[in-house]
Amino acid sequence: MNATCLIVDDEPLARKLLMDHASKVEGLAVTGECANAIEATAWLRTQPVDLIFLDVQMPEITGLQFVRALKNPPAIIFTTAYRDFAPEAFDADAVDYLVKPISFDRFLKAVNRFLDQYEASPVSEQASVNDDRVIYIRSDRKTIKLALADVRYIESLDDYVKVHTRNQIWVTRENISKLVQHLPESFVRIHRSFVINTRFLTAFTGESVFLDKLELPFGRAFKRAAWPILQRPSNKA
Hints:
Elements: E1 3-8, H1 12-23, E2 28-34, H2 37-46, E3 51-55, H3 63-69, E4 75-80, H4 86-91, E5 96-99, H5 104-119, E6 124-126, E7 133-139, E8 142-147, E9 151-157, E10 160-165, E11 169-172, H6 176-180, E12 187-191, E13 194-197, E14 203-204, E15 208-211, E16 214-217, H7 220-230
Parallel strand pairs: 1-2, 1-3, 3-4, 4-5
Antiparallel strand pairs: 6-7, 7-8, 9-10, 9-13, 10-11, 12-13, 14-15, 15-16
Protein backbone atom coordinates (compact mmCIF):
# COMPACT_ATOMS: atom_id res chain seq x y z
CA MET A 1 0.00 0.00 0.00
CA ASN A 2 1.31 3.44 -0.93
CA ALA A 3 2.22 5.96 1.73
CA THR A 4 0.05 9.07 1.40
CA CYS A 5 1.47 12.58 1.50
CA LEU A 6 0.35 16.21 1.50
CA ILE A 7 2.33 19.14 0.06
CA VAL A 8 2.05 22.42 1.95
CA ASP A 9 3.79 25.46 0.44
CA ASP A 10 2.67 28.98 -0.37
CA GLU A 11 4.63 28.99 -3.66
CA PRO A 12 2.79 27.30 -6.59
CA LEU A 13 6.03 26.51 -8.42
CA ALA A 14 7.48 24.86 -5.31
CA ARG A 15 4.36 22.70 -4.98
CA LYS A 16 4.56 21.72 -8.66
CA LEU A 17 8.21 20.69 -8.34
CA LEU A 18 7.45 18.50 -5.32
CA MET A 19 4.47 16.98 -7.15
CA ASP A 20 6.72 16.16 -10.11
CA HIS A 21 9.38 14.62 -7.86
CA ALA A 22 6.82 12.59 -5.92
CA SER A 23 5.22 11.23 -9.10
CA LYS A 24 8.50 9.46 -9.88
CA VAL A 25 8.71 7.60 -6.54
CA GLU A 26 7.09 4.19 -6.26
CA GLY A 27 5.28 3.71 -2.97
CA LEU A 28 4.40 7.39 -2.51
CA ALA A 29 1.00 8.92 -3.36
CA VAL A 30 0.27 12.66 -3.20
CA THR A 31 -3.33 13.06 -2.02
CA GLY A 32 -3.42 16.86 -1.93
CA GLU A 33 -1.68 20.20 -1.88
CA CYS A 34 -2.30 23.28 0.27
CA ALA A 35 -1.05 26.86 0.06
CA ASN A 36 -0.83 27.45 3.81
CA ALA A 37 -1.16 25.89 7.24
CA ILE A 38 -4.81 26.90 7.63
CA GLU A 39 -5.76 24.97 4.50
CA ALA A 40 -3.64 22.03 5.66
CA THR A 41 -5.36 21.95 9.05
CA ALA A 42 -8.76 21.69 7.38
CA TRP A 43 -7.46 19.03 4.99
CA LEU A 44 -6.07 16.82 7.75
CA ARG A 45 -9.37 16.85 9.66
CA THR A 46 -10.98 14.80 6.91
CA GLN A 47 -8.03 13.23 5.09
CA PRO A 48 -5.13 12.16 7.33
CA VAL A 49 -1.83 11.42 5.61
CA ASP A 50 1.36 9.56 6.42
CA LEU A 51 3.75 12.36 5.40
CA ILE A 52 3.73 16.14 4.89
CA PHE A 53 6.17 18.07 2.75
CA LEU A 54 6.06 21.33 4.67
CA ASP A 55 7.45 24.76 3.90
CA VAL A 56 8.88 26.57 6.92
CA GLN A 57 8.28 30.21 5.99
CA MET A 58 4.58 30.76 5.20
CA PRO A 59 2.24 33.69 5.89
CA GLU A 60 0.29 33.83 9.18
CA ILE A 61 1.41 30.43 10.53
CA THR A 62 4.90 29.04 9.91
CA GLY A 63 5.51 25.38 9.23
CA LEU A 64 7.12 24.94 12.64
CA GLN A 65 4.15 26.54 14.40
CA PHE A 66 1.80 24.33 12.42
CA VAL A 67 3.60 21.12 13.45
CA ARG A 68 3.62 22.13 17.11
CA ALA A 69 -0.14 22.70 16.96
CA LEU A 70 -0.87 19.18 15.68
CA LYS A 71 -1.77 16.68 18.39
CA ASN A 72 -0.44 13.65 16.51
CA PRO A 73 1.52 14.95 13.53
CA PRO A 74 2.37 12.63 10.66
CA ALA A 75 5.95 12.35 9.47
CA ILE A 76 7.33 15.70 8.32
CA ILE A 77 9.90 16.60 5.66
CA PHE A 78 10.55 20.34 5.81
CA THR A 79 11.18 22.22 2.56
CA THR A 80 12.61 25.73 2.75
CA ALA A 81 14.94 28.28 1.22
CA TYR A 82 16.54 28.91 4.61
CA ARG A 83 19.12 26.73 6.34
CA ASP A 84 18.80 28.51 9.69
CA PHE A 85 15.72 26.60 10.83
CA ALA A 86 17.28 23.13 10.64
CA PRO A 87 17.90 22.73 14.43
CA GLU A 88 14.27 23.63 15.22
CA ALA A 89 13.04 21.32 12.48
CA PHE A 90 14.90 18.30 13.85
CA ASP A 91 13.75 19.21 17.37
CA ALA A 92 10.26 18.69 15.94
CA ASP A 93 11.29 15.14 14.94
CA ALA A 94 11.43 15.94 11.22
CA VAL A 95 12.41 13.06 8.95
CA ASP A 96 14.53 15.43 6.88
CA TYR A 97 15.14 19.07 5.99
CA LEU A 98 15.38 19.98 2.31
CA VAL A 99 16.82 23.30 1.17
CA LYS A 100 15.43 24.82 -2.04
CA PRO A 101 16.03 24.40 -4.90
CA ILE A 102 15.38 20.72 -4.21
CA SER A 103 17.03 18.28 -6.62
CA PHE A 104 15.37 14.95 -7.30
CA ASP A 105 18.26 12.92 -5.86
CA ARG A 106 18.09 14.85 -2.55
CA PHE A 107 14.30 14.50 -2.54
CA LEU A 108 14.59 10.76 -3.13
CA LYS A 109 17.07 10.36 -0.29
CA ALA A 110 14.64 12.03 2.12
CA VAL A 111 11.68 9.99 0.88
CA ASN A 112 13.61 6.73 1.16
CA ARG A 113 14.46 7.61 4.74
CA PHE A 114 10.75 8.11 5.41
CA LEU A 115 9.73 4.92 3.59
CA ASP A 116 12.24 2.89 5.63
CA GLN A 117 10.49 4.12 8.77
CA TYR A 118 7.01 3.75 7.28
CA GLU A 119 7.53 0.16 6.17
CA ALA A 120 8.91 -0.76 9.58
CA SER A 121 6.22 1.11 11.51
CA PRO A 122 4.49 -0.90 14.21
CA VAL A 123 0.85 -1.85 14.27
CA SER A 124 -0.93 -1.97 17.60
CA GLU A 125 -4.13 -3.83 18.25
CA GLN A 126 -6.57 -4.27 21.09
CA ALA A 127 -6.98 -7.84 22.24
CA SER A 128 -9.64 -7.22 24.90
CA VAL A 129 -11.56 -4.52 26.74
CA ASN A 130 -9.14 -4.89 29.67
CA ASP A 131 -6.43 -2.86 27.88
CA ASP A 132 -4.64 -6.10 27.01
CA ARG A 133 -3.03 -4.55 23.97
CA VAL A 134 0.09 -5.39 22.06
CA ILE A 135 2.39 -3.62 19.65
CA TYR A 136 4.51 -5.10 16.89
CA ILE A 137 7.94 -3.63 16.19
CA ARG A 138 10.72 -4.54 13.81
CA SER A 139 13.93 -5.31 15.68
CA ASP A 140 16.97 -7.34 14.71
CA ARG A 141 15.32 -8.38 11.41
CA LYS A 142 12.35 -9.86 13.27
CA THR A 143 8.83 -8.70 14.04
CA ILE A 144 8.53 -8.60 17.83
CA LYS A 145 5.22 -8.76 19.67
CA LEU A 146 5.28 -6.70 22.89
CA ALA A 147 2.55 -6.39 25.49
CA LEU A 148 1.98 -2.67 26.07
CA ALA A 149 1.49 -3.39 29.77
CA ASP A 150 5.19 -4.38 29.92
CA VAL A 151 6.50 -1.25 28.16
CA ARG A 152 7.88 1.22 30.75
CA TYR A 153 9.02 3.99 28.44
CA ILE A 154 10.22 4.75 24.93
CA GLU A 155 13.38 6.70 24.13
CA SER A 156 14.12 8.48 20.84
CA LEU A 157 17.59 8.22 19.29
CA ASP A 158 17.60 10.10 15.96
CA ASP A 159 16.27 7.58 13.41
CA TYR A 160 15.81 4.88 16.04
CA VAL A 161 13.94 4.38 19.27
CA LYS A 162 14.59 2.19 22.27
CA VAL A 163 11.55 0.46 23.72
CA HIS A 164 12.24 -0.24 27.40
CA THR A 165 10.17 -3.10 28.79
CA ARG A 166 10.25 -4.57 32.30
CA ASN A 167 13.09 -6.94 31.43
CA GLN A 168 14.58 -5.93 28.10
CA ILE A 169 15.42 -3.10 25.70
CA TRP A 170 14.38 -3.36 22.06
CA VAL A 171 15.88 -1.13 19.37
CA THR A 172 13.74 -0.38 16.33
CA ARG A 173 14.11 1.91 13.37
CA GLU A 174 11.21 4.24 13.98
CA ASN A 175 10.17 7.86 14.43
CA ILE A 176 8.87 8.50 17.93
CA SER A 177 6.07 10.79 16.68
CA LYS A 178 4.82 8.03 14.39
CA LEU A 179 5.05 5.46 17.17
CA VAL A 180 3.01 7.59 19.59
CA GLN A 181 0.03 7.42 17.22
CA HIS A 182 -0.29 3.68 17.94
CA LEU A 183 -0.24 3.96 21.73
CA PRO A 184 -3.20 4.12 24.15
CA GLU A 185 -3.91 7.01 26.54
CA SER A 186 -1.80 5.49 29.31
CA PHE A 187 1.29 6.56 27.31
CA VAL A 188 2.27 10.24 27.55
CA ARG A 189 5.01 12.13 25.76
CA ILE A 190 6.93 14.13 28.37
CA HIS A 191 9.90 15.22 26.25
CA ARG A 192 10.89 15.21 22.59
CA SER A 193 12.98 12.12 23.40
CA PHE A 194 10.73 10.29 25.89
CA VAL A 195 7.27 8.72 26.08
CA ILE A 196 6.32 7.06 29.36
CA ASN A 197 3.74 4.49 30.38
CA THR A 198 1.94 6.23 33.25
CA ARG A 199 1.22 2.85 34.84
CA PHE A 200 4.89 2.89 35.94
CA LEU A 201 4.81 6.51 37.14
CA THR A 202 5.87 6.91 40.78
CA ALA A 203 6.48 10.68 41.09
CA PHE A 204 6.96 13.86 39.09
CA THR A 205 8.06 17.46 39.52
CA GLY A 206 8.11 20.46 37.22
CA GLU A 207 11.47 19.29 35.86
CA SER A 208 11.47 15.49 36.10
CA VAL A 209 9.34 12.37 35.90
CA PHE A 210 10.19 9.29 37.97
CA LEU A 211 9.62 5.62 37.18
CA ASP A 212 10.81 4.13 40.46
CA LYS A 213 14.50 5.14 40.68
CA LEU A 214 14.70 6.20 37.04
CA GLU A 215 14.54 9.98 36.51
CA LEU A 216 13.59 11.35 33.09
CA PRO A 217 13.55 15.02 32.04
CA PHE A 218 10.25 16.88 31.66
CA GLY A 219 10.40 18.88 28.42
CA ARG A 220 8.95 22.38 28.63
CA ALA A 221 7.26 22.08 25.24
CA PHE A 222 5.34 18.97 26.35
CA LYS A 223 4.50 19.99 29.91
CA ARG A 224 1.27 21.82 29.09
CA ALA A 225 -0.31 18.74 27.48
CA ALA A 226 1.24 16.12 29.80
CA TRP A 227 0.74 17.83 33.17
CA PRO A 228 -3.06 17.31 33.46
CA ILE A 229 -2.68 13.66 32.48
CA LEU A 230 0.02 13.00 35.08
CA GLN A 231 -2.17 14.60 37.74
CA ARG A 232 -5.04 12.18 37.22
CA PRO A 233 -5.72 10.21 40.44
CA SER A 234 -5.17 6.91 38.63
CA ASN A 235 -1.62 7.97 37.74
CA LYS A 236 -0.49 9.07 41.20
CA ALA A 237 1.78 6.78 43.16
